[in-house]
Amino acid sequence: MPTSTLLAVTRQDVNDVQCQALFVSRLRPSDNPTTDMIAEAIIGSVRRFGPDGCAGQMAQEFGDHPDAASGRMRWVRQLAVRAGRDTWPGGHDAAERQVAA
User: Fold this and answer.
1) Which of 1, 74, 78, 92 sits between 20 and 30 A of 29, alpha carbons compared?
2) Distance between CA atoms of residues 34 and 50, nearest Å
3) Comparing C-alpha atoms, which of 51, 60, 57, 65 is closest to residue 101?
4) C-beta of residue 42 within 8 angstroms of C-beta of residue 25
5) Angle at 42 between CA 53 and CA 71, to 5 degrees
6) What residue ranges do the domains of the chain occupy?
7) Does the reported pTM lie above 0.90?
8) Mean pLDDT of the chain
9) In the chain, where do the E strands start and end?
């Protein structure tokens, strides 16, 4: 009989996924993104690539363009801090459910 394993998703995991998803999103600094735009970008990237796919896309960019990628990641982390926990509709618990799904 197969058993299922429950994965514990920590807040750090969720923050990492948010940053990776923002990194691979189509948002640009010139968009001057609002909190709603940030949320839409995160959810769209996770739906498009999945959490592991976002990490893979980001890793590829760091390999191909390390200088540009590091600048983008600094910007993404600033966005994530500015947006805070409201980035995911429904708050942080919704983020954990979205990533775990």
Assistant:
1) 92
2) 23
3) 51
4) yes
5) 80
6) 11-21+33-100
7) no
8) 79
9) none
